[in-house]
Write a structure and sequence with these properties.
heterodimer, A: alpha/beta, Rossmann fold, Alpha-Beta Plaits, 3 domains, 6-stranded mixed β-sheet, 4-stranded antiparallel β-sheet, 14 strands, about 45% helix, B: mainly alpha
């Protein structure tokens, strides 16, 4: 039986940003479903609508048999929600946080005491339960939040980026908790993540979401097997070399796809936009000096309104580039230098690939061969790397606006 | 969709306010100390300039003590209401809002909790003032009755100002505006409340401003309870009104109480409304 049924769910912020764009899907009872997508893809917005915190612009959804619009109270009783940002009262103890939750969900004293004990055991926090939450580590806080989300025995548990910002060891521990809840306690779990390895490791099924639309759905293995063959990654010394080589592989029948991947500094689109901004700053410098101009931009960037908004990371990069000699050319080099080829039987093709590159008179920095991962699937379905959140400048702004709208959500109640 | 009000939800939110209040010892101590310094240094210092009974039987100290208690109530309750900003900032608001209870229950719990903690603060200040001897002029039986009545008045005053705080906190979206709130809302409300100087004799523009300050009526009501003279002019102003005028002259506490009831009802309603449509 489907525990969640979503029909054409849409959320439009500020009249023009389609954060979630007519998505439909079903979740079966007992599933561990992952929403995979970059920041601003619409993951949190979708969860917020399913949990009745946010009213959809159009479309409908049924959670545990209750319509999110007609019976939000019953929906809220059916779900547990572990938010992306911490939502604990740090001035209370762990036990008091759980007690608050139990009471506000109307659990009787006896049930409450039992469940709190049970949940503290599940997340292994018994010995710290009576300490103030402000003395907890990040991982302990996260575990407490998961315990809290489960206290009222929800049928469905929403986990929004459950391991964001946690160290690898804690992440492992949280993953094990999540898996155990799903397998032993039979809780249906829907989580969002932008870590492909998390989705791969944990989820029975993955829905890749980008720009508010579902772009691919399937089990991790299904998704990976869509990319038949191997990935051969060529890394060049210079982005210009990549441009030269790229067309040479497009025609080959043994190459299923050839996709340039952005380096750490952002992809080509973002980079050219950066260059333009820098040129503007250089021109507008006048008597106030470079950093003065930057400070002014910063003020404009922080708040809404007209003019160009400049994301903080751009500002930092610009400031960094301008404060060092040769900064400009260093940034140029941060453009796309890697070309990913999807090739049948990659190992045997490498000599031929190297020959083609050599023949074009271009120097290779390295060649790497691997089986397709979810990263590659994401790259193939969206044309971008999931790690590269920059995209073009307008995309960046769109994502930031969605993220902001999703966080500062208008709530009904 | 109208959701019912849940007693359990109100109780749990209220209890959280009390726990948090009780644990913030530094806040309790500093606010008591602040009032104590006002009473001791200001009350006794400035009080020594006046001789005779111009400030009633309790002298200047007895005159300002109810107002200084009022100051504790005012600051405590507005801050408590504005703490919805912090709940939002530190995320706990989401935990409350995703629960299957109405926003109205949550905010009623918040307002009651804030009113209760600020009133506890007021009772502590009342004790401190009594120890200093601010009310030694009041006969003991009357004082006991007065204390009991003043607790009721405190709840009424603080509920209104928590409501005001919630309304402001729900409309602001960052706590950098906090300092502005203190300077432009709380201090004027306090200074115009007639704590330090009587209504009679103030310039008429100041009198008008004072009449517009709900805290003025709060301080008046506290004075009625605690044996200090109220601003008699207030009664004179209202006595011109037919039928109810003579009643007001006979019952000096009626005007402040009526105004407070009205103020508190309006503020709780506005606070609840703004909270229920605020963003998380």
């Amino acid at each position: 039986m489907a525990i969640i049924e979503v029909e054409e769910l849409t959320k439009i912020f500020n009249g023009d940003i389609r954060a979630v764009d007519g998505i439909s899907f079903k979740v079966e009872e007992g599933e561990l479903l992952g929403f995979l997508g970059p920041n601003g893809a619409g993951k949190t917005t979708t969860l917020n609508m399913l949990s009745t915190l946010l009213k959809p612009t159009s479309g409908s959804a049924i959670v545990n048999g209750h319509d999110i619009l007609e019976n939000p109270d019953a929906v809220r009783r059916s779900i547990g929600f572990v938010f992306q940002d911490p939502t604990l009262d740090t001035e209370l103890t762990g036990r008091e946080n759980l007690d608050f939750h139990g009471r506000i969900y109307g659990l009787k004293r006896k049930v409450r005491v039992e469940r709190i004990k049970e949940m503290l055991e599940i997340v292994q926090l018994e010995d710290r339960a009576d300490d103030l939450v402000k003395t907890y580590s990040g991982g302990m806080k996260r575990r407490l939040e998961i315990a809290r989300g489960l206290l009222h025995y929800p049928k469905v548990l929403f986990l929004d980026e459950p391991t964001l910002g946690l160290d690898p060891q804690t992440r492992r521990a949280i993953w094990e908790h999540i898996q155990r809840l799903n397998e032993d306690e039979k809780v249906t779990i829907i989580l969002t993540t932008h870590y492909t390895e998390e989705a791969d490791y944990l989820c029975n099924r993955i829905q890749i979401i980008d720009f508010g639309k579902l772009v691919a759905v399937g089990t991790p293995n299904d998704l990976k097997s869509r990319l038949e063959g191997d990935i051969v990654s060529l890394v060049f010394k210079d982005p210009a070399h990549l441009m030269k080589i790229h067309p040479l592989f497009k025609g080959k029948d043994w190459v299923s796809s050839a996709i340039p991947v952005a380096g750490d500094g952002g992809n080509a689109g973002g980079m050219s936009r950066m260059m333009e901004i820098m040129r503007r700053i250089a021109r507008g410098r006048g008597g106030m000096g470079g950093m003065g101009g930057l400070a002014g931009m910063g003020a404009g960037g922080g708040h809404g309104g007209g003019g160009i908004r400049i994301p903080k990371r751009y500002k930092e990069m610009i400031a960094k580039a301008m404060s060092s000699k040769g900064g400009l050319s260093a940034m140029m080099k941060a453009g796309a230098k890697q070309l990913n080829l999807l090739v049948d039987d990659g190992g045997h093709r490498i000599p031929e690939i190297v020959k083609i590159v050599d023949g074009a008179g271009v120097e290779l920095e390295s060649v790497e061969l691997h089986k397709p991962t979810l990263d590659d699937v994401f790259l193939a379905t969206t044309g971008r790397s999931i790690r590269d959140e920059r995209g073009s400048f307008t995309e960046t702004i769109r994502r930031r606006r969605i993220t902001r709208s999703a966080r500062g959500m208008r709530v009904r109640g | 969709m109208v959701q019912p009000i849940s007693g359990q939800a109100i109780y749990v939110v209220l209890m959280r306010e009390i726990k948090r209040y009780w644990r913030a010892k530094a806040r309790i101590i500093s606010s008591i100390a602040q009032s104590f310094f006002f009473l001791l240094f200001f009350g006794m210092g400035v009080g020594s300039m006046f001789s005779g009974g111009s400030f009633g039987p309790g002298g200047y100290l007895g005159y300002i003590a109810p107002g200084i208690i009022g100051m504790g109530l005012l600051f405590g309750s507005v801050f408590s209401g504005v703490s919805v900003i912090f709940d939002r900032q530190f995320g706990f608001m989401k935990e409350m809002l995703v629960a299957p209870v109405s926003r109205t229950s949550i905010i009623i719990g918040k307002i009651l909790g804030g009113a209760l903690t600020a009133s506890i603060q007021g009772v502590i200040l009342l004790g401190v003032s009594t120890l200093i001897g601010a009310f030694s002029f009041v006969p003991l039986p009357l004082f006991v009755i007065g204390v009991l009545l003043s607790i009721g008045v405190m709840i009424l005053i603080t509920a209104g100002f928590v409501g005001l705080g919630v309304a402001i906190g729900s409309s602001l979206n960052d706590f950098h505006a906090f300092q502005l709130l203190v300077t432009f809302v709380i201090w004027p409300l306090f200074m115009l409340s007639g704590v330090f100087f009587p209504f009679t004799g103030a310039p008429s523009w100041l009198q008008i401003a004072m009449l517009c300050d709900p805290m003025f009526y709060g301080v008046e009501a506290m004075r009625v309870c605690l044996g200090s003279p109220v601003s008699l002019d207030l009664i004179t102003i209202f006595s011109g009104i037919p039928v109810i005028g003579p009643v007001l002259v006979m019952v000096p506490w009626l005007v402040p109480i009526l105004v407070l009831v009205l103020f508190t009802s309006i503020m709780v309603a506005i606070g609840t409304f703004l909270f229920s449509r605020a963003q998380v």
